Each structure stands twice: as structure tokens, then as C-alpha cells.
Amino acid sequence: MKKSESNPSEKRYFFGERGEGFLVVLGGGESGAGTALLGKEKGYKVFVSDKGKIKEKYKQVLIHNEIEWEDEKHSAEKILTADIVMKSPGIPDKVPLVKQIREHQIPVVSEIEFASKFTKATLVGITGSNGKTTTATLTHHILKQELNVGLAGNIGDSFAKQILEYDFENYVLEISSFQLDDIIDFKPKIAVITNITPDHLDRYNNQFESYIASKFRIAMNQTKDDYLIFDADDDVITNHLKNNPVQSTLLPFSLTKTIENGAYLDKQNIIITIDNNQIIMPTTKLALEGKHNVKNAMAASTVSHLLKIRKQTIRESLENFQGVEHRLENVLKINKVQYINDSKATNVNATYYALESMDAPTVWIVGGTDKGNNYEELFQFVNEKVKAIICLGADNEKLMRTFGDMVDIIIETQFMSEAVKIAYKIAEAGDNVLLSPACASFDLFENYEDRGRQFKNAVRNL
Fold first, then answer.
1. What are the binding residues?
2. Is the pTM of this model over 0.90?
3. Annotated binding site for ATP
């Protein structure tokens, strides 16, 4: 193994046309299985280890491809002989085995770091506390009209698997802070930071600064020939940039400021200017509603403009984009009551956008695993728009205490079917029933998708 020039104590992992050495993959989920397949194809000896149970579909992939694996345990002695470890994003650094791996100076990388070594594609990396799934999906929706492009990262089939099976010329990658924590050389041509609000602080020792720094790793390896698109209305982002300048060419977007190079809102139009080349997009025909979606459209359009997509294509794509499942998704209207699935709102800021966009009295279903939430920014909307609150979580005490005096009706339950039935009884014609939990889902559900699907099923069964 070559040593790093910049840090001799850090072993660098070798990448050429063929891999070299022993690759251990921690975690046998989507990113783990994809990395294992790509690693084997590139000549690594591969071993997949998962402390939990590997899902049957991934197990079959590993067996079919003759990749060695174990689940419900970690064989530490074997793992510590690795030349490189790919760690799935769900595994925190504080896990004793990960600490041991680092003590042995074995490089620990994320799937996006590993996979990016085996493609020459143009990479668009999108991160942020909220809006990254919608922005990534919308960007892909526009680009695919004219380019050969894949959508990966935190969404869909793994990046590694797509490189192996399709090797698209371009990729839009939705990237979490956990994935960015384990990059070394990863460098997107275009990076997007949608916004930064407190989230996942339990993984960052309750240090917001650490979480912010983690998000900005997306631009860490960029040069002046690369681009960073960001929300200029977000004080967290602009303050961090002032104190920690990046090498990238900056393209801000804003709803309130006039931007010379980037995107801004002028009355009903999005104006995008890059190197004196300007396009104007009317917001009145945007398929997605809400101020936050104007920002998502600005970010996606700026990426598309950089990649030379025709103006007409961008306009048409913005008008016909259908949105993302579990993000402000209209499910059904029953007795003139609209049921809305926003299960993807796993933090307070996401729920802020949801409540802000409500235009009718709302029965709000909230709750789950609280990640140190501060609900204060929601108070104005709760007072203005929310007629009843249904707390859906294993422990609802904080929600009951916080919102108990703000609404006439506040009820708690541990069952989605019951939550929807209660909402059905409370809601009147013209109201909304909104599932926007502001919390993670792991107390009662497998993940936010499971929570959203259960909500939709319960609504359909009314």
C-alpha cells in the first residue's frame, strides 16, 4: 500500500484499473451489497460483515456472486486484516469495531468514495438537511431528457452497483452527512447544499458545528473549475463560507436577494445567470408548490444550465415533475378532507416547510424518535393553522408538554391505523390531515418509507 504524501501515517488505498488487496464491507444493505459486487469485479478479495441480519434479497446476491459474508456478528480478527473498509452510513464512528479499525490505520471509506474511483462520469453531489431528495430527483428528471444520467447515493440502487451495471456518463448523487464523513478524494464537478439546520446531532456529539463541517465536506476537494450551488438565504451556510472559504466557483440562489452569478426570484420569475448567460423561468407553472420548492427548482435548474440543458427542456421538466413519494404527497381526498403524507419529514425544519404550505385548518400527526428537537420554530404555524395534534410515538411526553396548551385537541397513540381513524373523526370538510412527524421513525416503524406506506394504507382503508 502506498503511503499518503500529505499524511504519512494514513495508509492510502490503491486504485488502478484493478483493485488490490482485501476489501471488508461493513453492513450488508444496499450500499454494502453494491460495493461488494463492484469490489469483486475490480479484483478485490471481498468479505461482507453485518452485525444485524442481512435481508434475504442481499444475501442471495452475495451467494449468487460467491462473495463471502457473515451476519449477526463481526469477526474482528479477520476484519482487522483488511486493506480497506467500506462502512455503511448507518454505522456510527463510536462503534468499538470502527475505533479498532482506525487504530490499525486501515482506511475507512463510504460507498460514494469507493465507487467514484471506478467512473469517469460527471458527478453532481447534492446534500442538505432538507430538500436533497426532491432536488436530486428533480435534477435527474431534467437531465435525463437530454443526458445519459443515473440517480444514486442515498436513493434508489447503489452508486457502486450502477457503475458496475450501467456506467452512466453522468450521476446525480443524493449524499448524506454520514456518507460525506468517510470521503477522502471524492469530488463532484457540481456540488449543491440545499440548506443546513440542526439534524442528526446525536451522531455529532450534539455539536452543530461538526454537522455543518460534515456537510461542507462535499466541497472539500473541489477546485475553481468546479461549482458549489447553495442557498444564500441560509445564514448557517453563508456564515460558514465567510469563515471557511472554499476553492469552488460559487453559484448562490436566493428568494430575497438579487444574485449576479447564480439564481434569484424576481416577482414570479426565477432568473438564472451564469457567465452572463441568462435564463428566465416562470414560477407560476411549477408543478411543486411552496417557497422551499422554488428553491429546489432554482438549484436543479442551475445544475441543468451548467450542464447545457436547453431552456425549453428545463421549463417543461419543472412543469411536469410529479414530486417524491413521502414528501408532501397528496394521498386521497375523503369527505372533502385532504390526506397528506410527509413521512420524509424526519426533522423539525422539514415539518416547518410542510406546515408553512398548509392553506387550510390542519390535523397534524407528529412524533417518533426525537433527535434533540427544538419545536419553537413551529409555534407560529401551530397557533395559526393546526386545529388538533395526534402524537404518534413510543414516547410522546415532550410533544404533549410542548404543544398541550396550544391546541384544543391533543391525543397520543402508538398505532398508525388508530392515528388515522382519530384524524378522520376530528377533521371536517375543507381540512387537511397531515402526517409530518418531525422525528425519525425507528421507534415504531422500520423506516420513514414504512411509516408513509402504513399511513397511505390506513387512509385507503377508511
1. 128-134
2. no
3. 128-134
